[in-house]
Structure formats: C-alpha cells, structure tokens
Amino acid sequence: MKIENQRDERLTIEDNENIQKINIQRVKANPYQPRKTFDEERLNDLAKSIKLHGILQPIVLRKTISGYHIVVGERRFRAASMAGLTEIPAIVKSLTDEDMMELAIIENLQREDLNAIEEAESYRKLMDDLNLTQQQVAQRLSKSRPYIANMLRLLNLPKVVADLVKQGELSGAHGRTLLGVKDKRKMQSIAKQAVRESWSVRELENYVTTHYSENKTKAETTQKAAKPKFIRQQERQLKEQYGAKVAISTTNKKGNITFEFKSEDEFRRLIHQLNNKYNRE
Length: 281
Hints:
Elements: H1 7-14, E1 19-23, E2 27-28, H2 40-53, E3 59-63, E4 68-72, H3 74-82, E5 87-93, H4 97-109, H5 116-130, H6 134-140, H7 145-153, H8 159-166, H9 172-178, H10 184-196, H11 201-211, H12 214-226, H13 229-242, E6 246-251, E7 254-259, H14 264-280
Main location: cytoplasm
InterPro entries: Chromosome_partition/occlusion, HTH_ParB/Spo0J, ParB/RepB/Spo0J, ParB/Sulfiredoxin_sf, ParB_dimer_C, ParB_N
GO molecular function, one term: DNA binding
C-alpha cells in the first residue's frame, strides 16, 4: 500500500459527510505514534484557539473494541482535552495496523517542527515495523535513498549528542558531521563546544576534519607507510632524545625536520636542548 503525502487531507475531504462527534474519553493515542514529545507552548496556543473557534479540521480515528485510536490529529486531540472539550469531531475509518502506522508517521514527517532525530526515528520505525528497505521508504515518501540513509546515520549518535539535536541546540547536519569523530567521549566534548561557541556546520566540519576525521587518520597512516624505514627510525630517536613529536619530510632532494610543542614551556625547553646540543658541538 503506497500512501501519498497528502493522504490524511484527502481522507478528511472525501469523508466530510461522515464526520461524527465522539466522546473524548473514548479516544486513545495511536499506539504506533512515533512522536513522544509535544511542544507544550504550542499545545497551549492551539487549546486557546480551539476554545475560541472550535476544531476546524476533524481528526481521523479507527474503531477498536473499547473505543477509538487516533490515526491522524493527536495534537488537536491533546489541545481539545486541554481546552476542556467533552466531544471531538472525527472521521472514523476502517484501517489496518499498517495503515495506522504509516499515516501516523507520514503526518509527523509533514510537520515543520519535527527535529532531525525524530525524523530519523520515523524512517527507522517504517523500516522495522513494515519490513521495508531504505529504497522502499524513499519511494513512499518521495525522498532519495541517500537522503534516507544520511538521516538514519543520526541514530548512531550517543544520547548526549542526540539530545542536543532534539533540543534544537545542534542541527542534523551538525550531528552527521560529528559522526566523523569515532571516540564518543571526544564527540560529546566537541558537540558541547560547538553549542557553547555557536559553531556553524562549516566551522564544525573544519574542526573535525583538522583534528579527528577518519580521512585524516588514513592520510597520516598512508604518509607514514610511505616514509623510508631509516627516516622513521630517525624520527623515533629524535622523539626519545628531545621528548617531543618529530616529523621528517623530504621533497625534491630537500627536507624538513619539524618538532611539535604544545605550550610555551615546551617550546623553551626544546630551544634550550637544541642550543646546548649546538654549543657542545
């Protein structure tokens, strides 16, 4: 069953004559609802609007043995409860579990305030519960398969970082960039720094590429492997002699010896050692 993006709206339009007033006490949340948190401030605003104008668009329900399950319109239902309504206008549909699940997820995906983690969780739920591939999810939702794959990668973020994305402190693009840091503790530290200093995605990309990216590690490994054995031996000897990381590079019959220092004290110590070595000779 393929459901178009505007299916919930077509359900309402097609079945306007079947709108019913349902006792709000008999309505239960959709068990397949992927969204667990709702913005309280926006719910309050919607509740105030409902008090003044009523519910302009009926929700969609499925009949159950004990009452009704919400298929589409859980925000309206919650706001109606907050507004003190005892009945709610609804369209009752005969739907399968698969229909309910897919409609609930699609409704959430159409919302502008859905954060990147919730979006990724919705795609994962479609795949797991309906046994779909990334390609099939992409086709149903008119997305590209790489887009779905990239969103799903966010589910590999540690909880601390995922929560920052959920709270809007970081974007989904920030989250995907941080996945280039394989050490989760370092990833969390960088994520918090990015929030503190309000880094753009580009700034974060530059930082991760410079310090932690897998590509950088691979490049260093390749470069190290390409050095002659005797140069690597000299680097180790110099490191032991001066207590600092040393890199020797050669190009076009010329070369450089680089000493790395991390503080002014280390710099002064290195200069002192080198001067002493030179004076003794």
